[in-house]
Specification:
3 domains, elongated, 158 residues, mainly alpha
Length: 158
Amino acid sequence: MKKLTIAALITLGVGSMAYVAMADDHGGRHAPALEKLDLNQDGNISKDELSAHRADRFASSDTNGDGVVTKDEFAAFAEAQRAERMEKRQERRFARLDTNSDGVISAEEHDATAAKRMDRMFERVDTDGDGVISEAEREAAKEKMRERRGKRGMGRRG
């Protein structure tokens, strides 16, 4: 019984740490922001740091400070996180298109970036290099995309 209790506590502790780390960046293609958990920046994450981080996230979602999180507070917290991620994503996309970093995207910058992306895609699909994408090459490209989605656990949408 004692071994089972210890195993359960270890599992809960590791699971909590993974949850907190993934909650910041939502797992997937984003690496967990473990450095956010290392509050004293010593390269290690202590239980105290983990507890402090967890308490801070709870306090951030408890907007009226009454010690409980309502559905509305939870939804607002989740929406604020989503909005922050979207803003960062838009900033990265804008910076990629604004190739001369002047704070605006000219038609030339947009066209050049789009042309590079389209050229790379065309070259990947035009497997025989004849400058034309045949029906067979289109079908092969579709199948390759289906295989990639399947490997990533992404089913068909719809």
